[in-house]
User: Fold these one by one.
Assistant:
Number 1:
Amino acid sequence: VQLQASGGGLVQTGGSLRLSCAASGRTFSTYNMGWFRQSPGKGRVLVAHYRDDGDSTYYRDSVKGRFTISGDNAKNTVYLQMNSLKPEDTAIYFCAARDSWTEGYKYWGQGTQVTVSS
């Protein structure tokens, strides 16, 4: 199983980026994929994912209203649209997948760097 994240880069405060994560090697429901991030000197935290088998979504408080997770099952790909970016969003963003929404994340991508300049 491989998860290939892309779409990171350098953007100014207030800008937007769209991250993509394509899974290969097996098929995942995009409801079982999510996004995490790790800022310098900090641990990896959950940013957004689906809950209840896709019936709802979770966003960490600091990104609510600015980030949107979506997926395309036909492409085995999950996206993270990030708007109104802030310097504190600077981090390595990882996508992850799990075997079902009731289980922990087991499969991880390599990460993509997002840098927001002030």
Number 2:
Amino acid sequence: QVQLVESGGGLVQAGGSLRLSCAASGRTFSSYAMGWFRQAPGKEREFVAAIRWSGGSTAHADSVKGRFTISRDNAKNTVYLQMNSLKPEDTAVYYCNASPTLGYAGIYWGQGTQVTVSA
């Protein structure tokens, strides 16, 4: 059974930082890319960042470049999203995802973690 478990969300003031974690288990994702997507109320889910387990290639959405950084710890099967200089418009539920293609959503999703940025 595949499991992606997110943690690290919360409430933070604008300009602050949070680090999200996604722990993967249940199958081998070595050939996959792990991604973060987010969905704000009334909006469609959108791509945030992704990284390949093998090689570490990354991709970041233009809206978060220079502020968010995705990384991985292969030994822990965990992917991180370091979010700095947070803005109120970053408020959303953040979802972890596993996909064969970097930057595109695959079929495996976590349950989501809420990030709220106050002005």
Number 3:
Amino acid sequence: QVHLVESGGGLVQAGGSLRLACVASGRTSSIQYMGWFRQAPGKDHEAVAHIKWSDNSTYYGDSVKGRFAISGDNAKNTVYLQMNSLKPEDTALYYCNLRGDYGGVGYWGQGTQVTVSA
């Protein structure tokens, strides 16, 4: 069992920055990937970014490439998402996601709201 707690969301003006954090607790020795998804009202769930725990390789969704940066701290079981040059279309509920050797089960945080005003 793994528990995820996100923080760092809020309201920011377009062009501004926010940093999200997600801390994992519980059976963290089996973590393989940690990352972020988002969902805006009326839109599909979207993969934002993820990082592979073993080699720090990263993936970014096309809409955030060059603006967002994901990083991880294995010792703290924490993943961060630095979001720069934010746009109103980045407004969404951002969810932390964790995958690993958990028998096909993925874990989700409760979500943190990011709102970007024009």
